[in-house]
Structure prediction request, 186 residues.
Amino acid sequence: MPPSNLRPIAARLLVAAVAAIAIASASAADADAQDARTTSKPFYLRDIQLGTYTLPFSPATVVVMLVSAIMLNGIFSSPKSTASASHILLDGDDAEARLTKYRREIVKAGSGGGYAKFQMLAKAHSKCPSGKAAGGKLGSFKPGMMVPAFDKAIFSKESKVGEVIGPIQTNFGWHLIWIEERNLVE
Prediction:
């Protein structure tokens, strides 16, 4: 290559080298300034050092997070109401009328045979898989685990344990409900 062609390349290399030196010295100055800021902070506000690693939070932040976690755990683990219930689910235009008829049969069976009659009707007529398998048993649940209308019926103080409730309409259809057990916590 002729020397006249090398001049622009040499000039570019020189500009790149000067830029690299300027960046390196600026980085060193930034690092010194960062060290000065870090050492001027009280220990409880400095980032946590673990060997060669620096965690991007301070001991004060860790304490705040721990206290918050403990307080939130107390809020969310407070006692909740629970219930255990069975239901008969029907859908269709005549579902409400059929459930009203079933309710009368259950009430007529009385307190001794009412639940047995409820289970028999659930096994025979319910559209819910739990109805066919276990006499309508839904198991134990807390408020908010069922659809709102169902929850309202189960966890209402007016609804009595051991009596048939309904018919109640939800987005799944019409229900008769039997509350087996309930623990209301206010």
In short: The chain has a mean pLDDT of 80.
